[in-house]
Write a structure and sequence with these properties.
Number of strands: 12
CATH topology of the largest domain: Rossmann fold
CATH superfamily of the largest domain: Nitrogenase molybdenum iron protein domain
CATH architecture of the largest domain: 3-Layer(aba) Sandwich
Strand order of the largest sheet: 6-5-7-8
Distance between the termini: 39 Å
Largest sheet: 4 strands, parallel
Order of helices and strands: EEHEEEHEHEHEHHEHEHEHHHEHH
Strand content: 5-15%
Radius of gyration: 20 Å
Number of domains: 2
Number of helices: 13
CATH class of the largest domain: Alpha Beta
Helix content: 25-40%
Shape: elongated
C-alpha cells in the first residue's frame, strides 16, 4: 500500500505519514495561509493577470492553453471553474473528474524535466517539494502554489485564483457562489440542538482529526463534539488515538475515511478489541465516506457536507 494519508486538508508538517490509505494531495508546505484575493485585473478576467498565491504574486501573461495540475484538489477546481479544456496533464493521484488527463506525473516527488516535457504554460501545485517552483521558474513556466486549505474560505479563494489565472473568472465566481449556497443550505437545515459526539478515522492505526483542522471544522458546522479534541497529544490536529480512548469516549457517530484504502466498515470495526459495544455500531451510525472526497478541499467538499448532514439528521431523529 502507498504511504499516503497526509492527506486531509490542512495537514501540518512533521506529522508521520499514515500507512496504507487513499489518494490525495501532498502535505502542504510551511505556508498554509489563505491566498490573498486576486488583483483587480484578475477579477476583470483580462491578461496579463497577477494572482496572489501561496508562492507570492504570480503573473500569467496570456490565457493558458496547456495547464498541468499536480494537485488532486486543484484538478477538481480547474474543471469546476471551466478550465477543463485547457488542462493537458494531471498527476497520478487526480482521480476526479473521470475526463481529467491523468498521467504518471507525481505531486509527491515532482520531476521538473517530466513536467516541462508536457510544454505547460501554467502549473498548479499544492506543495513546493524539492524546490520545484524555482526549477520551473528558471524555464519561465508560471506556477501557482495553492496549499492545503485550513478553512472553507481558502477553498473559495483558490477557486477564484484558478478562475482568474485561466481566464475563467465569471465561471469561477458562479462555481464559488453555487458551492457557498449549497453548503449554507445544507448546514442551515441540519439539527444542531442535540450535542452529538463523533469520531473521524483517517486510517485504522487509528489516526483522527481535531476541530482545528479543515475537516474538523466541517463537522463543527453541525455543532458536533469531536472526541479527538480530548486526545492527550493533539499532534498538530492529527492525533493517533488508542483503541481504548475511542471505546471510552463511545461516540454517537463514527465517520470512516479509510473505506477505499483500507477496507474499513462497521463489520471490521466490530472486530477490533472492545469496539463491538460502541453505540455507533449498535445504532447503525457508522458512516462510510469516500476517502478522496474526505481528504480534498475542492468543490466536492459540499458532497461531504451533505453526507455529514444526513448522518446528523438520522442520529438526531
Amino acid at each position: 500500500m502507498r504511504l499516503l494519508r497526509m492527506a486531509v486538508a490542512g495537514l501540518v508538517l512533521g506529522l508521520p505519514v499514515l500507512a496504507g490509505c487513499g489518494a490525495s494531495d501532498p502535505a502542504p508546505a510551511a505556508s498554509t495561509a489563505a491566498p490573498a484575493p486576486a488583483s483587480p485585473a484578475a477579477t476583470a478576467g483580462t491578461f496579463p493577470v497577477t494572482v496572489q498565491a501561496g508562492n507570492g504574486a504570480v503573473t500569467v501573461a496570456a490565457r493558458p492553453s496547456r495547464v498541468v495540475s499536480l494537485s488532486p484538489s486543484a484538478t477538481e477546481m480547474l474543471f469546476a471553474v471551466g478550465a477543463g479544456p485547457q488542462v493537458v496533464a494531471v498527476d497520478d493521484q487526480s482521480t476526479f473528474p473521470a475526463e481529467a488527463p491523468k498521467t504518471d506525473l507525481s505531486g509527491y516527488k515532482p520531476n521538473a524535466e517530466a513536467i516541462i516535457a508536457t510544454k505547460p504554460d501554467l502549473v498548479v501545485l499544492a506543495n513546493d517539494t524539492g524546490g520545484i517552483v524555482a526549477a520551473l521558474g528558471k524555464v519561465g513556466v508560471p506556477v501557482l502554489l495553492e496549499p492545503a486549505a485550513v478553512k472553507l474560505d481558502d477553498s473559495y479563494d483558490q477557486m477564484t485564483d484558478l478562475g482568474a489565472a485561466t481566464g475563467n473568472t465569471a465561471k469561477a465566481q458562479e462555481a464559488v457562489t453555487a458551492m457557498r449556497q449549497r453548503i449554507d443550505t445544507l448546514t442551515a437545515a441540519a439539527p444542531k440542538d442535540k450535542k452529538l459526539t463523533f469520531y473521524h478515522e483517517l486510517d485504522s492505526t487509528p489516526y483522527s482529526v481535531t476541530s482545528t483542522t479543515f475537516i474538523g471544522q466541517i463537522y463543527g458546522l453541525f455543532g458536533l463534539v469531536n472526541i479527538a479534541d480530548e486526545a492527550p497529544d493533539p499532534a498538530g490536529g492529527y492525533p493517533k488515538l488508542s483503541g481504548e480512548f475511542v471505546v471510552k469516549a463511545d461516540p454517537d457517530l463514527v465517520f470512516l475515511a479509510d473505506t477505499k484504502c483500507c477496507g474499513q466498515n462497521k463489520e471490521t470495526l466490530a472486530k477490533r478489541p472492545g469496539w463491538g459495544g460502541l453505540s455507533a455500531i449498535a445504532k447503525d451510525q457508522v458512516v462510510l465516506l469516500d476517502d478522496d472526497i474526505a481528504s480534498r478541499w475542492g468543490p466536492r467538499v459540499a458532497d461531504l457536507i451533505e453526507t455529514v448532514g444526513a448522518a446528523v439528521a438520522k442520529a438526531a431523529a
